[in-house]
Specification:
- The structure is a single chain.
- By secondary structure, the protein is α+β, with helices and mostly antiparallel strands.
- It has six domains: 3-195, Immunoglobulin-like (Sandwich), CATH 2.60.40.10; 212-301, Immunoglobulins (Immunoglobulin-like, Sandwich); 319-401, Phage tail protein beta-alpha-beta fold (3-Layer(bab) Sandwich), CATH 3.55.50.30; 404-478, 2-Layer Sandwich (Ribosomal Protein S8, Chain: A, domain 1); 492-582, Baseplate protein-like domains (Phage tail protein beta-alpha-beta fold); 598-677.
- Helices cover 24% and strands 36% of the residues.
- Strand 35 and strand 36 (578-582) form a beta hairpin.
């Protein structure tokens, strides 16, 4: 069993574990049920249930009496005041007709503990199968500090199936939801989350588990071994954003039976049976908040007498530039990750993606020949719906957020701005606003970071930010100090790439395909044209069946006809000759995180402003709406205006930079006729 196939088993095991030492209580609808026993007084709270059983009771009492009105399973907590370790959980199972009842699903950490700033998703669904698909939803927050919802409240509730929010203040948060089926609205289902506090009273952040596998005496990060070798699982790179001590727990997922010898952050074992061994590391901070399980797989084979290959001196030094050849047909993602490790590239994912991988096992359709690893990572980013951050030589982290910024220590830097000739307080304020927009991801991710104040007399701007954000500010200021705005990227390199693409796409291909799968047709065309080809997930093995007759047509025409026949949106051509067939909206060319890869460019707009009567803020709005408008939602990109220099500053990839330059040129020539209708 592969590692990806084992992740759903881990998620099921965690969900089944539930609160420790839960006491079972059974009852029927309408019965009076006493919970607890004589003794010390306790505070009572409803952790989960298909309806509101009682309001949170902070008045300590020995026992609690309830009368359930809805069938289902309720989890009730009794906690000794001032004694957080003295907690009892009662599992109340109520029998009766389960009509118009709902429940709330949460895929996350254990024991309903969340970390500060992490995205939480709660989903409500109907328990009765005869209710059909729910047609409307309502959410309410019953208790705790206000949560930061990802959507506008509507009459005190949110009308959506999934409630997304972040929590920043420590405390206990209670939520309720209901759904409307064929027979009307369900009862209110409830769910409770806890955000622990640190010793200083601030909210606790979830630690991150990191595992590196290797053999004793061998290189780390190579998850392969032979029988009889000592395998080392190293979790010492795990971190706590709050700087606290961590405890380590290892769990075996799949593989032949083996005993782990655990010593602090490391675990070792000696395999005697070939196969794939999968484990998970969970780290817990001093406040009891556990990380998400970080899986790791080790492939064990029998030793051979063949000598190991020596490294090829002609290989590129950067592992992301090394060529990769692989053909995978409907294979689990773990197979591709193992092939990447063979060329010295380790791929890790953020906790959010790890959660989604537990509920959906990705399958891979990919055929590449001598393709740079960087291009394969771009394809993988499309598949995961995430970008990747290069954390070190051969180490990439796929993320949908900005977790790496939280690990950077903020530093104070004084930036020289005297060459910008700020004319007054308004120009200084505009500059600070521009720089804030350029590093807003860092401002969101890290508390206590600042930009300003501006010392116009001394020509200095002070910022307290992570080093990568300081570097971005320095690049923006360097661009503004240029005597002439840089404008869009040059055409020399782009023209050469365009010629290469045309040359590949003009290669002739032929074939008579009767009932072939879309994947097999694409692979045969790629074989004839000697180019690489890849797919986003097609939904069914190999994609839909197609019939095509091609007689010495250009590869571009053949791919376009294949896309139409298969119901796909088209294809993307990437250097140096990779063709990706895709469904849906045309994806970006590169999925390297734009925090790292985006270019900083400026555009002189003074002539445009005077000729067309447009202000700087108006130009910012027009650029976002006209120059590839679907590409500005990323938090790592920006377009802003510097009034002191009369320039637009754009932070984005080359493709969008080129589109901005073309739009501004068109706007200067055509005025309003350049705008889309």
């Amino acid at each position: 069993m592969s590692l990806l196939a084992a992740l759903p088993l881990l998620a099921s095991a965690l969900a089944a574990a539930g609160p420790s030492a839960a006491r079972q209580v059974r009852a029927r609808i309408g019965e009076t049920v006493p919970l607890g026993e004589p003794g010390a007084a306790r505070e009572w709270a409803l952790l989960e249930g298909p309806s509101i059983l009682f309001d949170e009771d902070r008045v300590p009492r020995q026992m609690l009496t309830v009368r359930p009105r809805v069938a289902g399973v309720y989890l009730v907590e009794a906690r000794r005041p001032g004694r957080p370790g003295m907690t009892a959980v009662f599992r109340l199972e109520v029998e009766g007709p389960a009509r118009r009842t709902a429940a709330i699903r949460y895929v996350g950490g254990r024991d309903r503990l969340v970390g500060a700033g992490e995205l939480v998703d709660l989903t409500v669904w109907l328990l009765s199968e005869d209710e059909g698909e729910p047609g409307a939803f309502r959410w309410r927050q019953l208790g705790g500090p206000p949560a930061a919802f990802a959507g506008p409240p509507r009459r005190g509730a949110l009308a959506q199936e999934t409630l997304s929010f972040t929590l920043t203040e420590p405390g206990r948060y209670r939520f309720a939801a209901k759904a409307r089926g064929r027979r009307g609205w369900s009862h209110w289902a409830t769910f409770t989350l806890d955000l622990p506090s640190r010793a200083d009273g601030r909210a606790d952040r979830r630690p991150v588990a990191v595992v590196v596998a290797g053999t004793r005496g061998g290189p780390a990060g190579i998850p392969r071994a032979s029988t009889g070798e000592t395998v080392v699982l190293d979790g010492s790179r795990s971190s706590d954003a709050d700087g606290g001590e961590l405890s380590y727990r290892w769990e075996t997922l799949v593989g032949p039976p083996v005993g782990l010898d655990v010593a602090g952050p490391q675990a070792t074992f000696v395999p005697v049976i070939p196969g794939e061994y999968s484990f998970a590391l969970i780290v817990t901070d001093a406040e009891g908040l556990a990380s998400l399980p970080e899986p790791v797989a080790v492939r064990v084979t029998r030793p051979t007498s063949l000598a190991l290959e020596t490294p090829d001196a002609s290989q590129p030094a950067d592992p992301l530039d090394r060529p990769l050849s692989v053909r995978l047909e409907d294979q689990p993602l773990s197979v591709l990750l193992a092939r990447l490790s063979d060329v010295g590239v380790t791929v890790r994912t953020s906790p959010e993606i790890a959660r989604s991988r537990q509920s959906e096992a990705y399958r891979v359709d990919l055929w590449v020949v001598d393709m740079p690893v960087r291009r394969v990572l771009d394809w993988l980013g499309r598949m995961l719906g995430a970008s990747y951050v290069v954390e070190g030589p051969g180490v990439v982290w796929f993320t949908r957020g900005s977790e790496w910024l939280e690990r950077e220590e903020a530093v104070a830097v004084a930036h020289r701005i005297d060459a910008l000739h700020l004319g007054g307080a308004d120009h200084a304020s505009d500059l600070v606003d521009l720089l804030r927009e350029a590093v807003r991801a860092a401002l969101w991710a890290r508390p206590g970071v600042t930009i300003g104040p501006v010392d116009t007399a001394g020509g200095v701007l002070t910022a307290v930010l992570p080093p990568s954000a300081q570097d971005r500010i320095a690049r923006v200021l360097a661009e503004l100090r240029r005597p002439v705005a840089s404008g869009p990227p040059g055409d020399n390199e782009d023209a050469a790439l365009a010629r290469d693409r045309r040359r590949l796409l003009e290669r002739p291909v032929s074939g008579a395909y009767r009932g072939w799968s879309a994947r097999d047709v694409a692979w045969d065309l790629a074989r004839q044209a000697r180019v690489a080809v890849g797919f986003l997930p097609l939904g069914e093995p190999g994609g839909p069946k197609v019939t095509l007759d091609l007689k010495a047509v250009a590869l571009s025409e053949a791919l376009a006809r294949l896309a139409r026949a298969a119901g796909m949106s088209g294809f993307v051509m990437e250097p140096p000759g990779a063709i990706w067939l895709c469904a849906g909206e045309r994806p970006a060319l590169s999925y390297e995180c734009l925090w790292q890869s985006a270019e900083v460019r400026s555009y002189d707009t003074r002539r445009l402003e005077s000729a067309r009567g447009l202000s700087g803020p108006a130009l910012v709005r027009l650029v976002k709406g006209e120059a590839m408008p679907g590409r500005w939602s990323d938090r790592f990109v920006m377009v802003g205006y510097c009034s002191a220099r009369g320039r637009l500053v754009v932070i984005h990839d080359r493709e969008v930079q080129r589109a901005v330059g073309e739009f501004l040129d068109r706007l200067e020539r055509l005025g309003e006729r350049a705008l889309s209708r």
